[in-house]
Amino acid sequence: MEYHDSEKAKEVATRVEAFMDEEVLPREREALRTGDLISFDELAEYWEMAKERDLFAPQVPEEYGGQGLDFRDMLPSFEQVGRSLFGALAIRANAPDEGNMHTLEIGGSERIKEEYLRPLVQGEKWSAFSMTEPMGGGGSDPKMLRTTAEKDGDEWVINGHKWWSSQAKIADFLLVMARTDPDAHPYEGTSIILVPKDTDGVEIVRNYPVLGGHGVMETEFGHAEVAYDNVRVPVDNTIGEEGGGFRLAQLRLGGGRLTHCMRYCGMAERALDVAKAYMTEREAFGSTLADKQALRHRIADAETKLHVARTASRHAARELDNSDARIEVAMAKTFTANVTNEIIDLAVQCCGGNGIAKDLPLAHFYEEVRPFRIFDGADEVHRRTIARDAFEDVKTEEVEHVLRFGEPHR
Ligand SMILES: Cc1cc2nc3c(=O)[nH]c(=O)nc-3n(C[C@H](O)[C@H](O)[C@H](O)COP(=O)(O)OP(=O)(O)OC[C@H]3O[C@@H](n4cnc5c(N)ncnc54)[C@H](O)[C@@H]3O)c2cc1C
After folding, report:
1. pLDDT in tens, 114-147
2. Architecture of domain 7-94 in CATH?
3. What is the pLDDT of residues 48-98, one digit of tens each?
4. What is the maximum alpha-carbon separation in the chain?
5. Domain 7-94 and domain 246-390 have a common topology
6. Residue 179 backbone phi and psi in degrees, to 5
7. Which side of the chain, N or C, has fewer Cβ within a 10 Å radius?
8. Which class is domain 126-242?
């Protein structure tokens, strides 16, 4: 399918695809087959290979050690890395570090960029984004955020309780969303503050069991409950403007949602590749599964929906050049999250017991894709945004002639 991406975007994505096919997917298959999982040291070898191929951290400006691709040009590469369970990690384009790199790049001071962004890109540091709170605090409605940061001289004193801080357990620092002005509307009085994890008062309470998990990496990155108890950090650890946390988070999330869309489109494409290969070989009731019309139609629908998801993501990315593209991003995100869930479920079904067994990557994909309907804004939250826009300009004249109760008979 031709998407008319730029020549640069196509050229890089072709090289990322080759890296996945030649180095990453064979190792992933081996890890699934033998249980010999990938260590951090081995991951660093993939980073060296990615650097030799000029593919390392495509989303980061060259001055910080990346490839300096602009947003639209990097998207097709994100699709390629999504084909593997550790593809994004292998080129250091993995969440949440990728989004955190972007946040530090746009909001970090020169000191922060040197001390945190540069080593984060190189994989010398890991990071977490600490926004969501347990029941009673901020979740789908981030205005409910209760974690606070009060100024004491030139320090912030942070108190709060978070969970779903992905990979906080292995992180060196956390970007914490906290109310810094309790009198202002949360959208105007919340800031993002960089907190080194070894600061007194930061407690990584636990990594709780979740759907999904290890994949093919030896270390479980996990999702953590985190307590902040009188945590003191310098005021100049504020990322972006004081009070501008939501605006910055929105900048991070708009693009981040689309990079996730592309990664999951890549995952859905690989799921279809696996399913089609299985269906072509497997026979039942006198013919291959690939010959069964009932399944062929479902595969055709899956290919069609995946094409629409890819197109919607690219369209939203184009619109991001001109505005925050709130509606376009919400549509692309919700549609892609649902379609990729549907497609991976279909691939599991087509492969029968092999869809559930973890010799193939499908069961991992199934576990990985389900949360996408919840994080980066749950389906219903995006639909709320889309519906608000849909009802903004109602054409009341369309029902002018409808008969009302009690009106003269016509
Ligand atoms: C795998 C994973 C990784 C995550 N990583 C991070 C991270 O790194 N950092 C971080 O801060 N957070 C992270 N999160 C948290 C995520 O952002 C939240 O789970 C999400 O915002 C939803 O918040 P909640 O869990 O509190 O759900 P709730 O706010 O309790 O909502 C529950 C459900 O209610 C429904 N709902 C909500 N609003 C409406 C509405 N207006 N109308 C109808 N239905 C509605 C939705 O279906 C929603 O799923 C992660 C979550 C997952 C699953």
Report:
1. 999 999 999 999 999 999 999 999 999 999 999 9
2. Orthogonal Bundle (1.10)
3. 999 999 999 999 999 999 999 998 999 999 999 999 999 999 999 999 999
4. 82
5. no
6. -70, 120
7. C
8. mainly beta
Cβ 389 under 6 angstroms from ligand 1: no
Say which CATH class 246-390 falls into: mainly alpha
The domain spans of the chain are: 7-94, 126-242, 246-390
Are 295 and 350 a contacting pair, CB within 8 Å? yes
Q: Is the CB of 381 under 6 A from ligand 1?
A: yes
* 262-278 mean pLDDT: 98
The whole-number average pLDDT for the span 202-209 is 97
Average pLDDT of the chain, as a whole number = 96
Structure-token match 């008969």, residue found? 403
- For residue 51, the surrounding DSSP H or E stretch is helix 40-52
Number of helices (H), then strands (E), belonging to the chain: the values are 14, 10
Q: How many A from CA of 263 to the centre of ligand 1?
A: 20
Q: What is the distance in A from the centroid of ligand 1 to the CA of 155?
A: 31
Rg of the chain on CA atoms, in Å: 23
144 in contact with ligand 1, CB cutoff 6 A: no
Q: What's the predicted TM-score (pTM) here? A: 0.96
The residues facing 224 across adjacent strands are 165, 207
CA angle 242, 243, 246 (to 5 degrees): 120
Give the residue, out of 204, 263, 374, with the most ligand 1 atoms within 8 A of its beta carbon, to mutate for a pocket test. 374
Which secondary-structure segment (H or E) carries 179?
strand 173-179
Which residues lie across from 204 on neighbouring strands? 226
Task: For residue 70, give the DSSP letter.
Answer: -
Q: What angle do CA 225, 229, 234 make, to 5 degrees?
A: 110
